[in-house]
Structure formats: structure tokens, C-alpha cells
Amino acid sequence: EAQVTQNPRYLITVTGKKLTVTCSQNMNHEYMSWYRQDPGLGLRQIYYSMNVEVTDKGDVPEGYKVSRKEKRNFPLILESPSPNQTSLYFCASSSLSYEQYFGPGTRLTVT
Amino acid sequence: GQNIDQPTEMTATEGAIVQINCTYQTSGFNGLFWYQQHAGEAPTFLSYNVLDGLEEKGRFSSFLSRSKGYSYLLLKELQMKDSASYLCAAKKKAGNNRKLIWGLGTSLAVNP
Predict the structure, then answer these.
(1) Which residue among B31, B97, B105 places its CB closest to the CB of A42?
(2) Would B28 disulfide with which of A106, B5, B56, B93, CB 3.0-4.6 Å?
(3) Average pLDDT over residues B71-82
(4) Given strand A65-66, what is the order of strands in its sheet?
């Protein structure tokens, strides 16, 4: 089954404790992206990747890092999480058709 | 600038028809997506329009007018499960980032 998976689905952590949210797709898509979704602000792009070892900033990259060592995986790293990073995070991938397939989401709470 | 506007909330009755409008101002516009998102879940793809006109897909249809910067999503024979947020997103032409400019979504409540 074609899908995008994310882990964990839910995470409660404390300020400053490094965390990684994994994202994996099995559709051989070149393009992958991370979004955060907040009430009243909609979907905002954090980082994206056009291919292996090619990543770039989206609209709200501050406080986040990503890597793309393999085509299928695109982890999101929060080196020192802060409460303003409490949000619902989505990973997405797409092919040349631009239709984006979203993972199930990760609800992160930073206290 | 880049902007997408859609109504915040709409209410409709089961079995009825509802039209959700979306207006956009995006440089390098090259197509418009509609996604459905149930509360707490991931957005799922509904439709994509790049040319002017109406695209029909079962109970859902989407319309685009590039000259007017306008699109709508038409939902027929509404069902309770259609209660969700509907996101409009404009695709920008060229560049490396397959970036979509997202609207804030229209929350549709379908009542019995």
C-alpha cells in the first residue's frame, strides 16, 4: 500500500530535549516536505527536499533541521524544542504530478 | 503578493449541495488543488485543476477560472461524513520548490 508514515504520532516533551520525528514514504517520490499546522495559521512549510542530499528552507525553518540521506526517509529534527513548537506536524511527499501525499501527523507538545 | 481566501465556516444539510469558494492571488500560478481534512487527520487529495472549467469526480466537482483568480469545490448529495475542513491550495510555476500556497480551510458542518 502506497503510504507516508510518521513516528511518533504523539509526543509530549520538555523544553530543550532534542527530538526527531521520522518520516518515510514507499512511493519512490523525489520530493518530500514538512509542514506544521496551527489553528488560524493553516499549513506552513518548514523544510523541503527535492532529492537525496538536497534540502532547503520553507517558510518557517527556525528551530528545525532536516536530512535526506535516503530517498524514502526525511526526518525532522528539533535540536532544542521550545513551547512555540507545540503543533501538529505533517510530512508529505509528491511525484511530478505535484499531488502531495500526507503522513498521518505527529502531535507534539513541548512543556 | 500571494494570498488565498476561502470562507472560514459553512453549514449545510444532509442530501443538499454546497459550493465552497476560493479566490487566489499568486504570482506564477500554475494550478489549484482541493484537499479534504477531517479533524486531527491528514489532508487527502480531492481534485486538481490547471485549465479553466469544471472537473467532475463523483459527488465532488471543482471549477477554475484563471482570469478571475477563482475556484470552487461543489459537493453534491451531502453526507454526514463530508463534515470536514476543505483546503484550497495554489501551485506556483517553476522553481525548485513544488510549493503550494495554502488557504486556511473552510470548515463544513453537515447537519441531519
Answers:
(1) B105
(2) B93
(3) 98
(4) A4-7, A19-25, A76-78, A65-66
